[in-house]
DNA sequence: CTGTATCCTCGTCGATACTG
DNA sequence: CAGTATCGACGAGGATACAG
């Protein structure tokens, strides 16, 4: 799955990062945390995602029991995705990290700018 | 910097995940949280990492002000890396996620096994 | 010891076309 | 509407060689 396993070192955290470290999983989780959503509705909200990646991302999340997939018996058939309890729990944990990120983002941006200023693109 | 930016959507959290979502940053932070460490010492601890990736990872962490680089005036010259306060703070946030991971890993493994059992490798 | 530069492989993802 | 299959392009990263 994805990139080569780093080590046995800290399996648990790596498992999670392998899942949410990718570009889209977090966005999907964030969106689903607002409530259930159908496939194409998600596509519209997360504009930049390709059909393939949304499909892959949802399947992986479902596989880990973070998202549940409910086929609605309508015509044409619709599929509704929603966070499971575990998914909601992960959303909470992510929020914690997101809070850290928001708190420290200004400082990080400053650090980056300072660093880049000293190492001028090295052409 | 890795992959294409997803969206403006949730910049802060994406910034962090772009940094720690990769295979090595978390391991480096974990290791440095135990105390300062030199380049090759890190290499030995994180066996699977290539020289190049350790270098790249450390530089990125330094750029974000998460790790500080201290050149020791010895012969031959040595370089000691350590977590900054911000880095230590991030380590705390990661630990929170790691705790979630450890708590839920058994359930996730179970879910995966159940899922995979239903979708037999499709060869 | 602590890196950087180059090359090359291999996985990842977007585009496209097609199915239920 | 909700996907899957195939293909091709791109880029991350390992190996290696070299530099300070």
From TrEMBL, chains A, B:
<protein>
    <submittedName>
        <fullName>HxlR family transcriptional regulator</fullName>
    </submittedName>
</protein>
<dbReference type="InterPro" id="IPR036388">
    <property type="entry name" value="WH-like_DNA-bd_sf"/>
</dbReference>
<dbReference type="InterPro" id="IPR002577">
    <property type="entry name" value="HTH_HxlR"/>
</dbReference>
<feature type="domain" description="HTH hxlR-type">
    <location>
        <begin position="11"/>
        <end position="109"/>
    </location>
</feature>
<dbReference type="GO" id="GO:0003677">
    <property type="term" value="F:DNA binding"/>
</dbReference>
<keyword id="KW-0804">Transcription</keyword>
<dbReference type="Pfam" id="PF01638">
    <property type="entry name" value="HxlR"/>
</dbReference>
<keyword id="KW-0238">DNA-binding</keyword>
<dbReference type="InterPro" id="IPR036390">
    <property type="entry name" value="WH_DNA-bd_sf"/>
</dbReference>
<keyword id="KW-0805">Transcription regulation</keyword>
